[in-house]
Amino acid sequence: MKNIKFNAVSATYSNGEGIKKADFTLNQREFLFLTGSSGAGKTTILKLILMALFPDSGDVQVGEFNSFNIKKNEIPLVRRQIGCVFQDFRLLEDRNVYENIAFVLRITGHREKYIKRKTFKMLAEVGLTHKRNQMPHQLSGGEQQRIAIARALANDPFVILADEPTGNLDAETAAGILDLFKVIHERGTAVLMATHNKNLVDRFSYRILNLENGKVVE
Ligand SMILES: Nc1ncnc2c1ncn2[C@@H]1O[C@H](COP(=O)(O)OP(=O)(O)O)[C@@H](O)[C@H]1O
Ligand SMILES: [Mg+2]
Question: Which pTM does this prediction carry?
Fold first, then answer.
């Protein structure tokens, strides 16, 4: 029963850019596209959800936490319920594929037996069990993004935030990544995907929020 709610959120950088009076809800288990040209404010919205940035006015509700009264030591608890996927994958280059997923489970304090079972489950979900001993640089961009998605899902977040997840991929690989997000959504995880790729968005019938000059338009 978890959602994300922006209540009249304004967040401006010192240069005046940012988000102006954003009002929207990402409903429980919803798939939502966040579109808008480069510089429109998509990443800023995701930072507000992660509480890496706080509103100048208004508030952001994430599950049981609210930006208005959250304590500093609770911010890791917010982030623990959120999976993140980025344009540039951000895998640990000095660890193999298996360890890239396993380490997030170690951080959350799971037992080794659980970590092994869960890591193999995640590898299977993204179809890359056979690549588990490879290093990230030995994988294609699409494969690296699949591992990043497996890692983002390992701790069973209620939502995945994806910031231009197909930005570094060719059209065919990008379509495959979108299909994977569709499956993840159908299995019960909410997805908020920021993208400026209109062609990809048009292939799906999910709700779209468009950002223009810091304003959110449904
Ligand atoms: N740390 C920052 N300091 C000042 N301005 C910023 C900062 N981050 C982003 N901006 C500005 O805020 C606007 C929105 O940025 P961003 O959210 O990154 O857009 P998008 O992700 O849609 O490309 C842009 O004009 C950008 O230059
Ligand atoms: Mg961005």
Answer: 0.96
